[in-house]
Specification:
Helix 2 packs across helix 3, helix 4 runs antiparallel to helix 9 and helix 5 (102-116) packs antiparallel against helix 8 (182-194). By secondary structure, the protein is mainly alpha-helical. It has helices spanning 3-21, 33-40, 44-56, 75-99, 102-116, 131-145, 151-170, 182-194, 198-217; strands at residues 30-31, 60-63, 67-70, 121-122, 125-129. A hairpin with a 2-residue loop joins strand 4 (121-122) and strand 5.
Length: 221
């Protein structure tokens, strides 16, 4: 594959990934390589390579005789996803606490401050997630594990979080007043990191992930 073709693969991959994570493509929605190739003005080979990479990252599935589709949602898959996230992300966080330097901790504190001061929902639509908050949330969780010292571990963790984001985007908002302090959960994780207490940090992150899953299981999944 030429360098130009590789560049186009990355561009198409990035656009489709963004559309899935932003909720513009629905879980289970069919993805037509021919239509995508026409929209982007690229070859079918470029589109199939981009979709294959998204499949490797858990955002797209390919079924015989059915082609490509956005990952469908199910209770069983969410529970499996959560269990795997707990294994991978807590391992990466433990290593980050052990290996992280002052610069990493400063960046993490800044990311947590930015996140806590970014409104989670749109002012004119309380049920709609703010894209600014979503980006700040992604950056916080990325930085949280960034000092683990393993690119492979980080890549696995990022792919798992992407899959979890699809669930979060498409689960029904819970009725009634909010009873969860997400910002407080993030502060608890950072406080444990700052104290150098890897066990407490891991416990706080595990509780944060599990709490999210509990909420999602009460939604549309």
């Amino acid at each position: 594959m030429s360098s130009r073709a590789k560049t186009r693969v990355l561009e198409v991959h990035s656009e489709i990934r963004s559309a899935i994570l932003a909720g513009r493509l629905a879980p289970g929605e069919r993805l037509s390589p021919g239509a995508i190739a026409q929209d982007f003005g690229v070859s079918l080979g470029v589109v199939r390579e981009a979709l294959t990479r998204l499949g490797e990252q858990g955002l797209v599935v390919s079924q015989p005789q059915q082609g490509f589709q956005v990952i469908p949602l199910s209770r069983e898959d969410l529970l499996d996803l959560t269990s795997t996230r707990l294994d991978i992300e807590t391992l990466a966080l433990r290593r980050s606490v052990q290996r992280g330097d002052v610069e990493w901790r400063a960046q993490l504190m800044a990311a947590q401050y930015r996140l806590s001061n970014t409104p989670q929902h749109l002012p004119d639509d309380p049920s709609a997630l703010s894209e600014d908050w979503a980006r700040a949330h992604q950056e916080f969780h990325h930085l949280l594990l960034a000092a683990c010292g393993s690119k492979r571990l980080l890549d696995i963790a990022e792919n798992l979080r992407d899959s979890a984001e699809v669930y979060r985007r498409w689960s029904s908002p819970m009725p009634g007043p909010p009873t969860r302090d997400i910002a407080g959960e993030h502060r608890a994780i950072v406080a444990a990191v700052e104290a150098g207490d890897e066990d407490l940090a891991v416990q706080a992150l595990a509780s944060h992930i599990a709490h999210t899953t509990d909420v999602l299981l009460q939604g549309a999944v």
